[in-house]
């Protein structure tokens, strides 16, 4: 990633936004083109697919550069990484006339003891993966006197090494979660297994969509609109299968440190 270039003993030049803007300017049109083509193949409109730019592992300057190229939705997977970044982005965008127009999404596993910090900054928490977390979020949202939009994370293949409700568990737990007045369920999220051929995970996305349709029938008073599914390597298949939100990191910002 290269945080800065060291000149003298104590002079550090931090990469400026221009560096990221150049890279993003090359990548974004290709991404938009791919989203549009996948939407068309799925008989859908690209406007119905929200791109959440997952900025984990990249600095605030990268977010600001993406913002200047028109992106407004950003995703983070750890509250402790997100907090200073959000503050820095807000400081950098402070002078922009429309600087307030930025939305953050929590897409990663939230530890119970950090639940309080997940209430407030996020437009949508994608990763509610257990009842205990839902209850804690409810408590802090009630304290803050707000309603927090959430998605339920589903471990479609019931992989024991992954977070999320199994499809059966999610159906069992829904009544308890819908009874929490300060949480608003807006749909489902999943992380497909990493595969070389994205066609392999099409059944995972199709299964999430069927589960969503079933829940919509069982609980028609709720809008189960969102299907947050698809990442850099498989978002086209996810869109064809009905994704309303894709979470794209690498295809926008490039490789992360440690990848
Ligand atoms: C990192 C991450 C992404 C984005 O992954 P890429 O492969 O870089 O697009 C999406 N969703 C979640 C939950 C993530 O943690």
Task: Describe the 3D structure.
- It is a single chain.
- By secondary structure, this protein is an alpha/beta fold.
- It is 41% helix and 17% strand.
- It is built from nine helices and ten strands.
- The strands form two sheets. It has an eight-stranded parallel sheet with strand order 9-8-7-6-5-4-3-10. The protein has a two-stranded antiparallel sheet with strand order 1-2.
- The longest helix is centred in the N-terminal third of the chain and has 25 residues, at 17-41.
- It is globular.
- Residues 54, 56, 77, 107-108, 191, 231-233, 247-251 line the site of pyridoxal-5'-phosphate.
Task: Calculate Rg over CA atoms.
Answer: 19 Å
Tell me what portion of residues adopts beta-strand conformation.
Answer: 15-25%
By DSSP (H or I, 4+ residues per run), the number of helices equals 9
* Unreliable segments of 5+ consecutive residues: 1-5
Q: What number is the mean pLDDT?
A: 92
* Helix share, percent: 40-55%
Biggest β-sheet: strands ordered side by side in the sheet = 9-8-7-6-5-4-3-10
The gross shape turns out to be: globular
Total beta strands: 10
Which class best fits the helix and strand makeup? alpha/beta
Biggest β-sheet, characterized? 8 strands, parallel
Distance between the termini: 11 Å
The kinds of small molecule bound in this structure are: pyridoxal-5'-phosphate
SSE ordering: EEHEHEHEHEHEHEHEHEH
